[in-house]
Amino acid sequence: MSAFARSIHRQKTNxxxxxxxxxxxxxxxxxxxxxxxxxxxxxxSISSGDDVLIRVHAASLNPIDIAMRAGxxxxxxxxxxxxxxxxxxxxxxxxxxxxxxxxxxxxxGSGVTHFTPGDEVWAAVPPWKQGSLAELVSLSEYEVSxxxxxxxxxxxxxxxxxxxxxxxxxxxxxGLGRDNCADKRVLIIGASGxxxxxxxxxxxxxxxxVTVTCSHNAEGLVRGVGADDVVDYTxxxxxxxxxxLEKFDVVLDNVGGGSEHxxxxxxxxxxxxxxxxxxTPLLANTDSMGLLEGGVRSGLALSQVAVKNMCNGVFYRxxxxxxxxxxxxxxxxxxxxGKILPVVEATFPFAQVPLAFxxxxxxxxxxxxxxxxxxxxxxxxxxxxxxxxxxxEAGGDGAKELN
Length: 403
Ligand SMILES: NC(=O)C1=CN([C@@H]2O[C@H](COP(=O)(O)OP(=O)(O)OC[C@H]3O[C@@H](n4cnc5c(N)ncnc54)[C@H](OP(=O)(O)O)[C@@H]3O)[C@@H](O)[C@H]2O)C=CC1
Fold this sequence. Notes:
Elements: H1 3-13, E1 20-26, E2 35-42, E3 51-61, H2 63-69, H3 74-84, E4 95-96, E5 100-108, E6 120-124, E7 136-140, E8 144-146, H4 153-156, H5 160-173, E9 185-189, H6 194-205, E10 209-214, H7 219-224, E11 229-232, H8 238-243, E12 250-253, H9 259-262, E13 274-277, H10 282-289, H11 291-311, E14 315-318, H12 325-336, E15 344-349, H13 353-361, E16 368-372, H14 375-379, E17 388-389, H15 397-402
Parallel strand pairs: 9-10, 9-12, 10-11, 12-13, 13-14, 15-16
Antiparallel strand pairs: 1-2, 1-4, 3-5, 3-7, 3-16, 5-6, 6-8, 15-17
The site of NADPH dihydro-nicotinamide-adenine-dinucleotide phosphate has 27 residues, from helix 2, helix 5, helix 6 and strand 10.
Organism: Esox lucius
Family: Belongs to the zinc-containing alcohol dehydrogenase family. Quinone oxidoreductase subfamily.
GO molecular function: nucleotide binding; oxidoreductase activity; zinc ion binding
């Protein structure tokens, strides 16, 4: 019996009582070569009353997986892991990457009230926890949510991390919500990837007017998921082109760099308008300068640019992913009522995780790259071959339905 067949057999028996599991791990930071498949990864177990143990059916990749594979955030994330292990000085490696999970609950801690074994769930796995490129993942109850019943596991796994990030950025930093968007104009810079395609749909569900930037061959995709105005950033001076449009209430920047300098000028001054960027120097600074200096430098940089923008009448904010199961419950309702659909660009079998990393690393995402961890159980078929790519102009099956 092959390693993958043994792993699938364990998945079918659905027993939480196993000490080892199949997983893709890294034992050092580096390029794709550091990804290693093993059947001997330590399986998570219920260690506290609010733990939920999930058998992973599908996972997906995010830019942070590429970055973490290379060591991004290692200092801050190690500190967080050490705090979680209560000073037991847990070893840094092996690390399991993968921030999205859709799967089935196999065991719960004594204090868990919302989930029971057999429930289908989805969640975004915090970067300081062992990830979802594995048979099992353990999360706390607060991080988990019931999966939308209208989605397959493969579709569901494309949503949680980008949804948690977009909601945290748009609501907590951008001040937007379902009740105040009707008269709002929002600009999304870099809208053709995971965060962008989700944010467009969320903002349209809330009634906002959404303008986006993307490259020309992504226009069909972003219009398919609801974008009102589309500006091709490859066609010329994107800042000048956007400057000809009516000003915005919120800018969500998924690209960073140069846009940080011109995008705040596109906001309505002195009206509470906010520029929110997801591209922040915090983890890179703590990696290169250490916790204290990196943290202080980042704080200073943030306050400097925030004050400068405040003088021009706009707010400047950093947006971050935040774990939040109840927020995913709301997203689940929007999905089940057809307001938000998954945008899956490609699906890779568990055996081909390195190829999925390679695809994501190539850039130009058009939605999400998903890993089918338990494909046989989902489809009742043997074998793990075959990468599926959605090559339609709209990008994914869900997006096509929106057209
Ligand atoms: N702070 C936080 O907690 C988090 C931060 N992030 C960050 O947010 C960003 C977006 O994440 P995600 O959507 O998942 O990333 P993706 O890789 O899925 O998408 C990025 C998209 O941006 C497009 N793009 C690249 N350059 C530009 C440009 N100059 N103008 C407009 N579009 C551009 C790319 O397509 P193309 O190149 O073909 O144009 C691609 O479609 C990433 O940088 C990620 O690291 C994400 C999650 C959490």
